[in-house]
């Protein structure tokens, strides 16, 4: 039943995301990133709530994170530095104001601030990739399809053939066979998508980027799994049937987007 719900969610969400990335104005993608940032941050704050002290402030801190992709949209990636600095100043003022004692002020502030780097900065960089000219839309969609293909291939092939556990202490269902299947799936989809999308990615780059992005995607998955294990939670939330929460769905992008963005900057 869970596999069926995963398939249904994929059937519904993939065409919507493709249309938003490739056909609609950038503002629609920005709105999507803002929603994912706010919901993802709220799930992150819910998971770390036992480690940080900020009663009744989760919604506000989550809403502040939605401003980071807007700053990228308006002022480029340099705008994210100003937004992060403003959030840090506000966070320190609030932390000193609401905490009854100061022994945990810096750990609490650090745990909160990490959420912006872990969740929102990667998503905000996706806006930068989309706005690159002349191949931004093609690059963004190619990356999304490749990561999705790798994630899906790793899940299903790992479920069918997985015998050798990859890191059972953190994620007992992940297997070496699943990673290999994910890499193969990413290679196939990355190569095929390259021919149908207006993207300046060569076949040689597909062969190099596919395994790197798949491995980084798995690292993002493991990182989010560690966060959930520390909180004693099975899923980050229940907003998506069969997928858990928003973080459960976007964890594969948390390290792949920054790497792909930096790669694109260095190659031009």
The main β sheet shows up as: 2 strands, antiparallel
**How confident is the prediction overall: mean pLDDT?**
87
Q: What structural class do helix, strand and pairing data support?
A: mainly alpha
Distance between termini?
Answer: 46 Å
Number of domains: 1
DSSP helix fraction: over 70%
Number of helices: 11
Topology as H/E string? HHHHHHHEEHHHH
Strand order, main sheet: write it out: 1-2
Low-confidence stretches: none
Give me the count of strands.
2
Strand content: under 5%
Shape: globular
In angstroms, what is the radius of gyration? 19 Å
Structural features:
single chain, 268 residues, mainly alpha, two-stranded antiparallel ribbon
Model description:
The protein is mainly α and 268 residues long. The chain has one domain (2-267). It is built from 11 helices and 2 strands, in the order αααααααββαααα. It has a two-stranded antiparallel sheet. α7 (136-161) runs antiparallel to α8 (176-196) and α8 crosses α9. The radius of gyration is 19 Å and the shape is globular.
């Amino acid at each position: 039943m869970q596999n069926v719900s995963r398939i249904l969610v994929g059937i519904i969400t993939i065409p919507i995301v493709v249309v938003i990335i490739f056909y609609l104005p950038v503002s629609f993608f920005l709105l999507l990133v803002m929603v994912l940032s706010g919901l993802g941050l709220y799930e992150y704050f819910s998971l770390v709530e036992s480690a940080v002290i900020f009663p009744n402030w989760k919604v506000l801190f989550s809403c502040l994170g939605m401003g980071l992709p807007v700053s990228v949209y308006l002022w480029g990636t340099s705008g994210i530095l100003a937004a992060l600095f403003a959030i840090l100043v506000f966070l320190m003022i609030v932390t000193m104001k609401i905490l009854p004692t100061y022994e945990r002020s810096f750990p609490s502030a650090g745990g909160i601030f990490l959420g912006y780097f872990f969740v929102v900065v990667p998503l905000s960089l996706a806006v930068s990739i989309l706005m690159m000219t002349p191949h931004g839309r093609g690059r963004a969609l190619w990356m999304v399809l490749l990561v999705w293909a790798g994630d899906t291939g790793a899940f299903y092939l790992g479920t069918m053939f997985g015998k050798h556990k990859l890191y059972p202490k953190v994620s007992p269902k992940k297997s070496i066979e699943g990673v290999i299947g994910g890499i193969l799936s990413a290679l196939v989809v990355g190569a095929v998508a390259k021919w149908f999308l207006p993207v300046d990615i060569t076949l040689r780059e597909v062969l190099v980027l596919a395994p790197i992005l798949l491995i980084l995607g798995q690292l993002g998955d493991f990182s989010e799994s560690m966060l959930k294990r520390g909180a004693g939670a099975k899923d980050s939330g229940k907003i998506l049937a069969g997928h858990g929460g928003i973080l459960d769905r976007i964890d594969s992008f948390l390290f792949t987007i920054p790497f792909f963005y930096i790669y694109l900057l260095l190659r031009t």
